[in-house]
Amino acid sequence: MAYSIPLEFYQQIEEQFGKELAAKVAKTVESGVQRVEEEAKALAVQKKIELKDELTKELVTKAEFMGEMKAVREEIKTVETRLQGEIKALCEEMNGKFSSMNLKINFLIGLMILALTAMNPVVTELLKRWLKL
Predict the structure, then answer these.
(1) How far apart are CA 19 and CA 81, in angstroms?
(2) Would you say 11 and 41 are in contact if contact means Cβ atoms under 8 Å apart?
């Protein structure tokens, strides 16, 4: 982008130093401003590259992310396998306890039926006749 000095500034230089010197000063100022702009652009590009490099170092790449995700998935599978084993062991233990409880309940039911039957007056009379008491 070309830079030109303000008209009022050029006119003041021309009035004090003449037309020839004013033209040289104007060209010198314009080229100086142009050089400063070019250096600023170059510096901006350099800073952008530096920032990009710095951010790239800080950010996780897709490959790194996928590697971490694979490790997390494997750990989850390990935990899942362990939990399934523990759940299976607990189920087997509970089935054993339920079988034991089922046997005890059946025994108590049989005992209760026997007791109720034995306490029945009709059955008592039948037992007396059979045993001849």
Answers:
(1) 92
(2) no
